[in-house]
Write a structure and sequence with these properties.
The protein contains 3 helices and 3 strands. By secondary structure, it is of the alpha+beta class. The protein has a 3-stranded antiparallel β-sheet, covered by helices on one side. β1 and β2 form a beta hairpin. It starts with 16 loop residues before the first strand and ends in a 5-residue tail after the last helix. It comes from Variovorax boronicumulans. Pathway: Cofactor biosynthesis; pyrroloquinoline quinone biosynthesis. This is Pyrroloquinoline quinone biosynthesis protein D. Keywords: PQQ biosynthesis.
């Protein structure tokens, strides 16, 4: 389990590539053995995991973009799950 801090800068693991898949009508993570279909919130978070954007900035951007507040805990929970699946580092 990784304790994500607000200054951490998550990034996709190099084995994955994220893209919009027209046939699936969703974002997907592509990797050599297959494809993972992403729901909307997962895609929004992973699009911001560029290795340069801090967790705090990522959360602030999501809250601003969607007019929501208190997304910090939900984003951290997703980051933990994504890290556990080796999608991000």
């Amino acid at each position: 389990m990784t304790a994500w801090t607000d200054d951490a800068q998550p990034a996709l693991t190099s084995i994955y590539r994220m893209q919009w898949e027209e046939a699936q009508q969703c974002h997907v993570l592509l990797f050599p053995e297959g494809m993972i279909k992403l729901n909307g919130p997962a895609a929004e978070i992973l699009q911001r995991c560029d290795g340069k954007t801090s967790v705090a900035a990522l959360v602030a951007d999501l809250e601003r973009t969607f007019g929501e507040s208190d997304l910090h805990a939900d984003v951290l929970e997703f980051l933990e799950q994504a890290h556990g699946r080796h999608w991000i580092r």
